[in-house]
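User: Predict structure, ligand beta-D-galactopyranose.
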Amino acid sequence: MHYGGDYNPEQWEEATWREDVALMREAGVTMVSVGIFAWSRIQPAEGRFDWDWLDTVLDLLHEGGIAADLATATASPPPWATAAYPGMHARDADGSIFWHGSRQHYAPTSPEYRRLAGELVHALAQRYASHPAVVMWHVNNEYGCHLHYDYSDHARDAFRDWLRQRYGSIESLNRAWGTDFWSQRYTDFDQIVPPRKAPYSHNPSGLVDFKRFTSDALLELFTMEKQILREHGATQPVTTNFMGAFPPADYRRWAREIDVITDDNYADPNDPESFRSAAFSRDLMRSLKPGVPWILTEQATSAVNWRPSNAPKAPGQMAALSMQAVARGADGIMFFQWRQSRRGSEKFHSAMLPHAGRQTRTWREVTELGSVLAALPTLPAGPSGARVALIFDWENWWAIGNPDHPVRLDYAHLVQRWYSALHRQHVSVDIRGPEEDLSGYGLVVVPQLYLVSDAAAANLNRYVADGGHLFVSSFTDVVDSDDAFRDGGFTTVLGPILGMRVDDFGALVAPAGPAGVDSAGGALDGPPSPAGPGQRHATVSTPLGPVVGQYFAEELRVLDATVVGTFTDGRSARWPALTTRVSGAGQAHYLATIPDDPGMTTVLRWALDRAVIAPELPGLPECVEVARRGSVLTVINHGAYPVSLSLPGSNLLTGDPLDDVTLAPFAWVMTDQPTLEEK
Ligand code: GAL
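Assistant: Predicted complex:
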């Protein structure tokens, strides 16, 4: 179990480094990520490297028994680099330059950036590949974090090359993009530009391709650095830190190139439900490389500096969120950062060692967590025990986010809400892609999978044919991988197994929220207006009671399915809303709307019942989380009040029975609890 944080010794004098190592030992730190933003200190000028300070830091860490996750430091090129090679700067869709003076201002496809970054990594690898402190390599930092998309001329050229590779001929691109619409037909790849500022909507297929290209271009940077490290004899695992469900990078594809998944997560202490979104990110990370423990590389010990209001974590909350990560497969708990900065943009960001020193609650909680993690037995790497898979897909995210749809949707937020509905019911979930093997799951939940590739369609059909239960909700199976309608209407590739077709989407007025998309809780805004213009919701009768539907009241044509729920109000009253089709041992359900939060819980309870999937533990309140890691169950109270519980087994750390246990706010217990199959 690794414990530590980002370590930026370049911000401090040598005397402080010695104190750092002593205090790290006091806090139980075992590993630090060194020098993530130290490029300008490592390489003060092109062709000149200053190693003395980094030699000393790594030697001191090693003497202190602390391992280094050594950064390749390529995330923030020094001012000398962009001054010498101004073409390195990234540009926005208007053509404005992202200047230096902050970080991540480089164009990922710039040949100068790639050359300079490559030279730096080459030099670092040569010097430190066999340094005994170095146990892992931390490539770059949060690729794409601030600068999701680059529209520079370098990006333009690289995008054209990427399109040449994908399509081979301009004719096939024209076909895929449907460029006869609005006179967009190209006669040469060199006429194509990234989706820069334009008077009106861009070609949607082109937008999706630009996002595919961006994810690939960023990944290429990672693999370039990894290859240099390997060529210079580095044998340690190589990683780059993810940011949960992050739009510009298809982490499912990236995960294949990454030795150990690492993730950064900043749950908002102001949001009482943020533990559920954190749980989603943890499950996503675990699911990206099943069976290989991941590392939480960054979180805050208390407040961050970048929200409008930066609340501190409540006493115990940092440990509760850390144990949540462990419970969901992490073998490392780390923070941004070790020592709070004295200068710079992040001086108000909390750290393991606060600016206010060691007589602080944060320091006490940091050292306590260090000893708890050190006392943990080795935990099983898996399996998660999840019988439910929730489908989450980047390509769909990109396509469904395009403009000009019946109603605007925030896909990631919707998937999070579906996840939360399962989390509230204490059901373990893996987050899978639509083309991944789903054979072990009892229930697969498919929310808003607007874009369904041919491979995904075959996979989902096979899953049901082999006896699985599929739950599909509206605005699914609308387009193919080109973001174009297929022949034969909608629901063309899943319709046969579902026994129905969607004829019309029946968009409702979307709930209020940022930019007209879904509000945080999915709550209804304003009084219900069930009929006529301005209809905001449509009630569905389900076997488990009425459910409020939002966004869509789709018009279904039922072909070969049983109607188990109908719309009961509004313009779609009495129309089918929830259908099911039994095919062999498999079942496929379709819901023609997107429910509000209580409705999601209801319809998923119905689907879980049909698939005979029970909660990990019965009768827990919603503020109590339960997570399985192999045979180990972790139970955490995220609520504001103590909760008394009767749990099976005994406390993994103390051996005490748990049949009568009270969990204070943010308290947790771990218990060894074999799965039903193991029993
Ligand atoms: C992360 C980043 C860190 C630090 C942190 C502050 O996005 O990787 O370097 O800036 O945020 O919360």
